[in-house]
Amino acid sequence: MTTDHRPEDGTDTRGTARETAPADSGEQAGEVYGPPLLTPRDPDPAGAEHGRFARMRLGQWLGLAGLALGLMLTAVLVPVGVAVYQQGQARDVLFDRVDPAALRQIELLSAVGRQDSAIRAYAFSGDRAQLQGYRQAVTEQEQAAAAMERHLAGLPRADPARAEIHALNSAIMAWRGAFAEPLATRPPGGGEPPSAELETQGRQAFVQLRAANGRLQSAMTTLHGEYAERLSSRSTTVYWSLIGAAVAVVLAVLALVLIIRRTVLQPVATLTGKVRAVAHGDLARELDVPGPAELAELASIVDAMRHRLMDEWRTTAEARRRIDLQAEELRRSNAELEQFAYVASHDLQEPLRKVASFCQMIERRYADRLDDRGRQYIDFAVDGAKRMQALINDLLNFSRVGRMDRREESVSMEEVLDRALHRLSQLREDTGAEITHDELPALPGDASRLTQLLQNLVGNAIKFHGDEPPRVHIGVERKGPMWEFSCSDNGIGIDPKYADRIFLVFQRLHPQESYSGTGIGLALCKKIIEHHGGTIWLDGTGPGEPATPGAAHEPGESHEPGTPGEPSGGTGPSGGTTQTTTTTGTTFRWTLPAGDDDD
């Protein structure tokens, strides 16, 4: 629901600036917050500025155009239809009635000729077959005459031809009465030719018959010519009517195209140009176009969207300014973190090394003066310094993952595993560990980080073993665009309820006295895998996998990458738990992208 806010004096304030500010302050605001904001214009009521006819809806325009086109086509096509109908009538009369009547005339004359031949043959021979041929010819002649009557019945201008048919029939009957029938009444088996008197009467009657046939032929020729001329005239009318209809259709289509161009295309082009100008940054341009009401409504909607964009532009500019400030603060914070990492890796470790060195020197120099408790205190101090040093190194490694650029190079996981096992050679020798693996693929990644990943996982699997010698297997399986790796062992196992906890920093499930470590190793593994675009989980706790119960103990952490063979941390609560040697085994699974070129 909208409300028209207008001053009491009736002044229309649509399209004016929302605020009035000096020019210099407006320019400054435009640089920071975007263009000046305008209140949206209400859509013009139909006919307010361009006339009621110009603001007709597109459906009304097309309805009027369709009505006009329909009337024009009706005015053109009705005469064409009438002409085609008349042409068909003329063709039907000529081809279905006049021409068949002319053919029946030929059959009639032929039947008369056969009558004359048959009756003369009968007169000379007295053969009954000739008499029957005569009677058959008479029947055919009468049928042909009746057919001519039927074809020409009801035809305009056919009366002379029908009169000549009657005259010809009369002449034929006169000829038969004067010549043929007297001969037909003779008994069969005779053989006497016609008398001279009868021959003369027959010749005179046949001359009259031929004269009547000539007049009928002339009448039929005249009738055929009239209807042929009529058909030609109707065909010409149809031809020119079709040409006129085609011209009218072309003109109607052109008129329709002009109407569509005037009412749709030109307003759309105008609106497109204005919208393009707005898209290029001219947000102060008003979107008002002539044309159908739908386009006016569309222009009003786009214009309202333009005003919303201007409002959002100002908000976005302010948000961008705040983001820039936060980004600058983050850059400064990252620089401080880099400086802290440098200090932690050099300045903090130097005092620890001195503490450990001097404690060891005290132990060597004053060994004969120290009792067992004194030597134990010195061992505690040295061990604490070394553990603090290992913790600092692990924290540095953890902080570097993700802050350094990811190197996208093809890495052979076979070589990565070889390097990791080389670093663990002392631990493997001490524990008698057996390491097996599937054929490992090559994939894109950071070789040093992936080496650290396998060193941590395999080191944990060796460190947290039961009574039997450690057995570790690295498996791999292709699943769509990802490689799914697994690290399985026969160690003490992990309760699935700790599946999320084991990947957190400083989370330990064993006391320091049971398993050494800093509590960072598995968290570092998770960060390395996520940095490569993969995920890691404890087997039996992944998506769609049933939980697999294990021992209520957790594997520890990784070996110190800088000191091969020495564990860098174990996991366990600070108070410790009761250790067991139950050999349930642990399997970690993780995924890594296979890369575009990998099959």
From TrEMBL:
InterPro entries: CHASE3, HAMP_dom, HATPase_C_sf, HATPase_dom, His_kinase_dom, HisK_dim/P_dom, HisK_dim/P_sf, Sensor_kinase/Photoreceptor
Annotated ranges, domain Histidine kinase: 343-536
Highest taxon, organism lineage: Bacteria
Record field: compositional bias (Low complexity): 544-553, 576-587
Residue spans crossing the bilayer: 61-85, 238-260
PROSITE patterns: HAMP, HIS_KIN
Keywords noted in UniProt: Kinase, Membrane, Phosphoprotein, Transferase, Transmembrane, Transmembrane helix, Two-component regulatory system
Catalytic reactions on record: ATP + protein L-histidine = ADP + protein N-phospho-L-histidine
Biased segments, Basic and acidic residues type: 1-17
All copies of domain HAMP, residue ranges: 262-314
Principal localisation: membrane
Entry GO terms, CC: plasma membrane
Transferase listed as a keyword: yes
Localization, UniProt: Cell membrane
Gene Ontology terms for molecular function: phosphorelay sensor kinase activity
Annotated SUPFAM superfamilies: ATPase domain of HSP90 chaperone/DNA topoisomerase II/histidine kinase, HAMP domain-like, Homodimeric domain of signal transducing histidine kinase
EC number(s) reported in the record: 2.7.13.3
Chain positions covered by the region annotation Disordered: 1-49, 536-599
Cross-referenced Pfam families: CHASE3, HAMP, HATPase_c, HisKA
Record's protein name: histidine kinase
UniProt organism field: Actinomadura viridis
